Amino acid sequence: MEKTIEQRYAIKFCAKLNKSLADTKQMIKEPYGDSVLSYSQVSRWLNLFKNGREEVEEDDLRSERP
What we know:
By secondary structure, the chain is mostly helical. Helix content is 59%, strand content 0%. The chain contains three helices and no strands. The longest helix is centred in the N-terminal third of the chain and has 15 residues.
């Protein structure tokens, strides 16, 4: 979980630099290797951060079960 949060901070940084999805994925793959987030997860978080999201926690992305 901790590495996931670290990767989200890296993705947020890339979003602020207006990096592309391919560039972002490549940049975070170097330090995290095989434990890097999936392409779809990187895409999702990159889009969220580019659209103004500031939080890296996932608390509001999941809906609660009834």
